[in-house]
Design goal:
Layout (H helix, E strand, L loop, with lengths): L18 E3 L21 E7 H6 L4 H20 L3 E7 L2 H12 L4 E3 L5 H9 L11
Parallel strand pairs: 1-2, 1-4, 2-3
Amino acid sequence: MVPIGLRPGVVSRAMTAPTIWVLGDQLDAEGPAFAGHRAGEARVLMVESRHAVERLPFNRERRVLVIGAMRRFADRLRREGWAVDLRQAPTFAAGVRAHCDEHRPDRVVVAHPSSVVSEQNFWLQGMFTATPTAG
């Protein structure tokens, strides 16, 4: 559902909107980072980090599947009216920084990374987690 007066995929410029940062293993619009947010009221950020993709313990074909799943999820969210910023960057930190420079969100909401390696990478890059995962 899109609030009255907003086109699907557009966040009102009159408000300072939060950003929901979705990681590649959190492709679920019912996930904890989306709680309390609706299309048109928040922007979704997805970062294809070259550093993270290269570190995945998968063969090339599986890496392509992960990136493809992220892109399909971004397309689905757009069809549902979300404003989605899917960007490629050398690292997560660079992607988030570029997004924040461009869109100036009032806050960035992200679910806790599901793996210890991801969590360690967040801390090494100066990132943070704000929303615990259920379970």
